[in-house]
Write a structure and sequence with these properties.
The structure is a homodimer. Helix content of chain A is 32%, strand content 25%. Chain A contains twelve helices and 19 strands.
Amino acid sequence: MNISAIKHLSVEKPILIISESLVRENIRAMNKKALRNKVLFRPHFKTHQSATIGEWFSDEGIHAITVSSLDMGLYFAEHGWNDMTVSTPVNPKQIHRINELAAKISLNLVADNHYTIQKLNESIQSRVGLFLKIDTGNSRCGILPGNKEEIMRMISACNTNPDLHFAGILIHSGHTYCAENQTEIAEIYHRDKTFLTELKDYIEHVTGNSIMLSIGDTPGCSLVEDLQWADEIRPGNVVFYDLFQWQLGVCSHDQIACVMACPVIGVYPERNEAVIHGGAVHFSKDYLLSDGQQIYGLCGIADENGTLQIQENCILEKLWQEHGLVSMPADQIRRLNPGDVVYVYPVHSCLTVDAVRNAITTEGKKVEFMLK
Amino acid sequence: MNISAIKHLSVEKPILIISESLVRENIRAMNKKALRNKVLFRPHFKTHQSATIGEWFSDEGIHAITVSSLDMGLYFAEHGWNDMTVSTPVNPKQIHRINELAAKISLNLVADNHYTIQKLNESIQSRVGLFLKIDTGNSRCGILPGNKEEIMRMISACNTNPDLHFAGILIHSGHTYCAENQTEIAEIYHRDKTFLTELKDYIEHVTGNSIMLSIGDTPGCSLVEDLQWADEIRPGNVVFYDLFQWQLGVCSHDQIACVMACPVIGVYPERNEAVIHGGAVHFSKDYLLSDGQQIYGLCGIADENGTLQIQENCILEKLWQEHGLVSMPADQIRRLNPGDVVYVYPVHSCLTVDAVRNAITTEGKKVEFMLK
């Protein structure tokens, strides 16, 4: 990320710096892969929650999106997005909000149980598509792919209300985040392909209708070449990537498209540490583990061209509510004064963006976010 | 916490439930202790960030507060608070915002280095009080108490601008949070007392002026009886407490004054788990460790009177961005349906409140927060 255009920025409080050019490259690369595989790219907008960044997707021809809550859906509907999937399973107490959103746009919902589908059946007033969530090993939400009797019972339940349309099956292979290496991620996708194409064929055979197969997580969609067996992919984190994806081998460090700029508020050469204004309420508390040490971020230092280079020996080691503790080599500490800026790559960009909601681009343009 | 007045609440999305009566009791108890010890109670408002809860403090006669950022200071100034300390050390790039706030209210700042004090000296235009931060073992910010030469140099530097008034010395003994038991917390306070009363006497002797000694962290202020050696105390978390304080032995479970209400979105009896809408963007990711297991929250179940009782076998075990995974005994899982509400006590109330900013009282009253 090149920060030369903003290197004299006076940082009053923690702010996220976003490289528009890197974000656009990340979007383009994933979109090309989707086109190669003839799948729809329906990016997850929970990572950025930003109307500004939504426009960059729109510039690349993206028209369908994923969101993680009805509030987020309503925000993006207000910004012109009219085809979306809310991927967090339905809370039946939100039916009136679902009807509100479904009246405005083309909406898909996700459920994994008969009870919720029954509730939707009783109350849906505008057409919605329903995806059944399948659990292929993540053990969060979803019905097991072998449980065909229950799957068919749920699909049948969809069809008693003409506004509730069974759209297909959907997975989130979040267990790719726990993979030890890239081979393991490829193996997860290979198993998913086997389970899901078999299940899709079965459902299409029984119902006589063709259905969608929706997949999506950034590690798998970034690393696996063959995605043709799916109909759509929903990666979100790809827009920024982060240290977690970097550690997992999913991206290179120069694909990471956001960094936190934090003012220094204390310098302690005697312990090779600085304290920054930038804490848990800005970074969130996700961490990497390295030799048993928790790492909440790594600093970037600009080279002579203004391009940030990750410094693996400049570590955000501790976070309190508003403070962060950075350890760094003696020669770097000696150059710091309170008021100077430290750039810190976040471990988990989705949570950092959600927490900080205050950003500019490397060209100094303001980025708009959904309000909390 | 008694939730009988809101037991039929339809929970559309995660919401924090606050017991006004417990909050008022927690405030009153700490205020009484401050009065017994003849110290000023200057509560840290970073925990709640709420004008509504600020009024409950005001009702108890509290008039001076602590905040953790200038933004928070400006928010509470707009709500009538006119005596505050910003406890996060000064970022010299915020001088114009400091001047803006100092023109409106009685403001104290914190610094621990000559460079920052010099910057303040050059630019402060309205009277501010300056506290020197002393590091008594927390190893975050602060100058070591034995470094008297540098301390006196900084105090001298305060006095070249008549608007910059040296107010005293300030500590945050955050290392009480790492104590193994209550005895260790008492020992930390005993050492603090020794260091700081000696330092205070020294400064008063050299300068000929009396100064303030400001201390504050919730574990110490809650557990230690003798606080007379200080002039003011600044605990924040005391307003709600949380599971962390409970595990540390600082509060009883029935002093915890907030709980998250989260809708169930999936029920999995085969693995004794439920998934709730309630994730890292609501709870934050602070955790307790219990036998090596990370615990992000514990559920409360209402007894026949509507009083929540902590269930140590109902555990928020995993958090993703919007989802949380709760494990619970089979008989409880069997009673759950999607749309039902699970009450989860947060591990760290400060971060949960900062993340969720959506709350009602147990009587159903809306609680207002500072916007992010």
